[in-house]
């Protein structure tokens, strides 16, 4: 397709590529798989410490499969996109059930694991097992779209088909793993989304976007969509003895499967809602400043409302979905990052007065 493309990538990788990332040490398919899942929509610098902690606790599929989901989510807290952690846990159990705890070596079997698509499966088997498969993560899409001037948004079906065809045609017969890592590194370090370092790129001589002065236009942008704004009250109900009521979120949706605070509609009275829905009587302690959290498809304004029970804790409406949590004796629970931050603030300032 493009004479010298792979050779240029390999030569650059040999001199400048990353070769000491945590998952590049003691390479196994399991370690590479976990890293590839963590790296989906997340930067290497953010992933590295999470990966090390995750591997220390869950060193192989068997340990991961046998661990409670709460503990897996706890080790993922703050990394975002929590469906990835739930899928890892489910996939580990399937690996133990169907492959005797050994990570599968066939592309179709890896693709069939929860949360694994064609590109991730190809990356794992190429980087860890020496197989030859194309990949098409975000960095690679950007490199190919610029070098070959592929028009359109890279999420469109026709554009994806074109990029996959290019990716397949370019994988060399030899050193596929080094080529794959080099191509990903090029996108991450040189052919960046903004201000690409074209003068340092080995593909500059054959890059059509650079030749036409269109690196800022390619790849095409995703069509703009308005981000709706939602507002909720996060009810921080304490039992008068330092414990806070937590609620497990549904497995589907934001913070899926994590523990959070009960959410009350912004227009309702927090005390009335707590009495009616949770079956608890409580007084208002304080209303904290609104915090905004931006998700992929919407923005969420959270109003933290502290309430204190009047009397001893009682049973709540749904005991299986609620628990009393003591910040002074933290448990290995999956907590959404904003929730963990609010709990930490409360533990540091337990007697803040009402305003």
Keywords for this structure?
alpha+beta, 355 residues, five-stranded mixed sheet, Nucleoside Triphosphate Pyrophosphohydrolase, 8 strands, 2 domains, 14 helices
Describe this structure in words.
- There is one protein chain.
- By secondary structure, the chain is an alpha+beta fold.
- It folds into two domains: about 5-210, Endonuclease III, domain 1 (Orthogonal Bundle), CATH 1.10.340.30; about 230-350, Nucleoside Triphosphate Pyrophosphohydrolase, CATH 3.90.79.10.
- It has 14 helices and eight strands.
- It has helices spanning about 5-15, 30-40, 45-55, 60-65, 70-75, 85-100, 105-110, 120-130, 140-145, 155-170, 175-190, 210, 270-280, 335-350, and strands at about 230-240, 245-250, 260, 265, 280-285, 290-295, 300-310, 320-325.
- Strands 1, 4, 5, 6 and 7 form a five-stranded mixed sheet that branches. It has a three-stranded antiparallel sheet with strand order 3-2-8, with no helix packed on it.
- Strand 6 and strand 7 form a beta hairpin.
- It is elongated.
- The mean pLDDT is about 90.
Beta percentage is: 5-15%
Order of helices and strands: HHHHHHHHHHHHEEEEHEEEEH
Count of spatially separate domains: 2
- Summed up, the helix count is 14
- CATH topology category name of the largest domain: Endonuclease III, domain 1
In terms of structural class, how would the helical and strand content be classed? alpha+beta
Approximate helicity band: 40-55%
> Biggest sheet, open or closed, and with what strands and sense?
5 strands, mixed
Computed Rg: 24 Å
**Which of globular, elongated, flat, extended, rod-shaped describes the shape?**
elongated
| Shape-level CATH architecture of the largest domain | Orthogonal Bundle
């Amino acid at each position: 397709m493009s004479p010298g493309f792979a050779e240029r990538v390999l030569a650059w990788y040999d001199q400048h590529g990353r070769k000491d990332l945590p998952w590049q040490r003691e390479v196994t398919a399991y370690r590479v798989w976990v890293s590839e899942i963590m790296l989906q929509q997340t930067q290497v610098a953010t992933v590295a410490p999470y990966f090390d902690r995750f591997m220390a606790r869950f060193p192989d599929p068997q340990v991961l499969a046998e661990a409670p989901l709460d503990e897996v989510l706890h080790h993922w807290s703050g990394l975002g996109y929590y469906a990835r952690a739930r899928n890892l846990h489910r996939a580990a159990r399937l690996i133990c059930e169907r492959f005797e705890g050994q990570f599968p070596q066939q592309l179709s079997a890896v693709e069939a694991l929860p949360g694994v698509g064609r590109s991730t499966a190809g990356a794992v088997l190429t980087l860890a097992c020496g197989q030859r498969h194309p990949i098409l993560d975000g960095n690679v899409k950007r490199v190919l779209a610029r070098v070959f001037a592929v028009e359109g948004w890279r999420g469109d079906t026709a554009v994806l088909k074109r990029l996959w065809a290019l990716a397949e045609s370019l994988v060399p017969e030899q050193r596929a793993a080094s080529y794959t890592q080099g191509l990903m590194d090029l996108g991450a370090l040189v052919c960046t989304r903004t201000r690409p370092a074209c003068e340092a790129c080995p593909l500059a001589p054959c890059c059509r976007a650079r030749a036409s002065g269109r690196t800022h236009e390619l790849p095409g942008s995703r069509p703009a969509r308005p981000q709706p704004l939602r507002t909720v009250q996060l009810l921080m109900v304490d039992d008068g003895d330092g414990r806070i009521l937590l609620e497990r979120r549904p497995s589907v949706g934001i913070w899926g499967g994590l523990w959070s605070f009960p959410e009350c509609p912004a227009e309702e009275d927090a005390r009335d809602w707590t009495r009616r829905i949770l079956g608890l009587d409580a007084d208002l302690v304080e209303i904290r400043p609104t915090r905004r959290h931006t998700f992929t498809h919407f923005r969420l304004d959270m109003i933290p409302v502290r309430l204190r029970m009047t009397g001893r804790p009682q049973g709540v409406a749904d005991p299986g979905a609620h628990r009393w949590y003591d910040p002074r004796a933290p448990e290995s629970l999956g907590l959404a990052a904003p929730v963990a931050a609010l709990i930490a603030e409360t533990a540091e300032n337990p007697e803040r007065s009402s305003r």
